[in-house]
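Need residues for this backbone.
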């Protein structure tokens, strides 16, 4: 009977399978490497894109913060200007008050009473003067109390002095100035 050698065929089949396996393994490795590299490239591309977007957002946020700071500075400047305008407006409204005050001092001053010194601190007036008698000082206080521009008279000191020509009274009197600005604000 003829001899058939099956071993080389099996050996060839084994070599063929090994070759196919190695080829498939190398192909799978290469395909895996391509997939991993592709995924890595895609991810790094997406990360780079997101970082560029974040940088754009940071730049825009920085510009908006500058604008907000400018707006806050402008609002502060506006408040300061409005406060200045209010002060100027109050000064404009109260400008004629000093004229009325001096006119009222002259009209309320009775005969025989002389002012030597006048001092104003805010709305409070301090008047130092001399009178021919203490009754003239009290008449002066009554006139101040009835005045439209002066109110709340208060006497601190009355000294009666004997002089060559007679007796004089030196006095220190306090009063409050009535303001149009205050009366307008209270209405």
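Answer:
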């Amino acid at each position: 009977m003829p001899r058939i050698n099956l071993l080389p065929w099996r050996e060839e089949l084994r070599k063929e399978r090994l070759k196919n396996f190695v080829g498939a393994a190398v192909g799978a490795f290469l395909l895996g490497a391509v997939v991993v590299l592709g995924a890595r490239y895609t991810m790094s591309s997406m990360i780079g894109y997101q970082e560029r977007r974040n940088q754009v957002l940071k730049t825009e946020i920085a510009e908006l913060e500058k604008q907000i700071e400018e707006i806050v500075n402008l609002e502060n400047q506006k408040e300061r200007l409005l406060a200045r305008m209010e002060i100027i407006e109050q000064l404009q409204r109260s400008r004629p008050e000093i004229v009325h005050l001096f006119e009222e001092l002259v009209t309320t001053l009775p005969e025989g009473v002389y002012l030597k010194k006048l001092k104003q601190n805010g709305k409070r007036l301090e008047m130092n003067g001399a009178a021919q008698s203490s009754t003239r000082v009290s008449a002066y206080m009554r006139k101040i109390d009835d005045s439209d521009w002066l109110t709340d008279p208060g006497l601190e000191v009355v000294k009666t002095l004997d002089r060559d020509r007679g007796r004089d009274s030196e006095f220190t009197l306090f009063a409050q100035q009535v303001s149009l600005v205050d009366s307008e604000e209270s209405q």
